[in-house]
Amino acid sequence: MDYLFLDASFFRMHPGSPAEPVLAAWGISTDGKPIFIGLAPGAGESTDAWVDFLADLRHRGLGSPLLVISDGAQGLIAAIEQIYPKALRQRCLIHRLRNVLAKTPTGMQDEIRDGYWAIFDTTDLDIEPGPALVDLIDTRVRAFAEKYAAIYPAAMKILLTDAAGLSAYLRFPAEHHQRIRHSNFIERTFGETRRRAKVIGRFPGETSCISLVWAVLDRASAGWRGLAMTPAGSRLLHDLRRSLLDPPRELRPRHAVDHAHQTNAVNATA
C-alpha cells in the first residue's frame, strides 16, 4: 500500500443520542489500484479511537504506507504517528484552505484563495519531485504567510501550523500530485452516504448504520480511478519504500570497531 487516506463522518446511530463518528480508510496499492480498506464506529475522533482502528488494520495485515493523507484532527494525527511512524503525512490542502478562509474577511477570500493555490502550482518548475521541490514550496508558504501576517494573523497562524504536512506529497511522482494532496474524493463519497442516511433520520442501532455506510462506500469505491504508474514513478516509489520503510542499517562507528579489536587483543594475550 503506497497511499492511505483516512477520514471520519458523523451519523446518528442510536435513538436519542447525538451523532457519532464512523472511521474509514481507503488506499491505493503499489500497482495504482484504489481499495476500500476498512470501516468502524469510533468513540469520538480521539487518539484512542483512531489508534484502535489503525491497530486493527495493521493486525489484519495492512503494512505501513508511504504517505497518509488526512485532515488536521489532532487525535487522528497522533494515531498516525503512533501506528505508522515511518510513513510521511500529508495534510489535506482543501481542508487547510477552508480553515484559512474561515479567518479571512469575505472581501479578501478570493485573493487569499488564489494566492494559496499559486503556492502549490509546480507546472512551470523544472524540478523533479523530492527534497528540493519540497524546500521551494515550503519557502513559498512562509513568504505568503509573511505577506499577510500583519493584517490576517489568525489565518496565517493556521497556515503555518504543521506546515511541513502541506508539502509531503511533493516527494512522490508528479503524476500523482493532484490526487494525493487532498482527501476531497473521500468527502464526496461520505456526502453521498449522508444523503442516504438523511432519508432514514436516526438509525435503530449501530449495526444498521455501519451496514448502510459500508454498502454505499463499497459501491462507490468500484468507480474510483486508480493512479497511472510510469516507469519513472515506479522507480521513485521503490526508492521511497527503501528509504522510509527499509533504511540501510547504521554502520558501527569506527571508534567502536577499534575498541572491540583492542579488547579482543587484550583478552587474547591475557
Question: What do you see in this structure?
Answer:
With 270 residues, the chain is an alpha/beta fold. It folds into two domains: 138 residues, Ribonuclease H-like superfamily/Ribonuclease H (Nucleotidyltransferase, domain 5); 86 residues, no CATH class. Helices cover 50% and strands 13% of the residues. It has eleven helices and five strands, in the order βββαβαβααααααααα. The chain has a five-stranded mixed beta sheet, sandwiched between helices. Helix 1 runs parallel beside helix 2, helix 3 packs antiparallel against helix 6 and helix 8 crosses helix 9.
CATH topology of the largest domain: Nucleotidyltransferase, domain 5
Regarding quaternary structure, what we see is single chain
| CATH class category name of the largest domain | Alpha Beta
Overall strand count:
5
Mean pLDDT over all positions: 86
Form type: globular
Q: Looking across the biggest beta sheet, what order are the strands in?
A: 3-2-1-4-5
Structural class: alpha/beta
Q: Considering the protein shown, what is the CATH homologous superfamily of the largest domain? A: Ribonuclease H-like superfamily/Ribonuclease H
Question: In total, how many domains does the architecture comprise?
Answer: 2
CATH architecture of the largest domain: 2-Layer Sandwich
Distance between the termini: 56 Å
Return residue spans where pLDDT drops below 50 for at least 5 consecutive residues: none
Kindly provide the radius of gyration, computed on alpha-carbon positions and rounded to a whole number of angstroms.
23 Å
Instruction: Write down the secondary-structure element order.
Output: EEEHEHEHHHHHHHHH
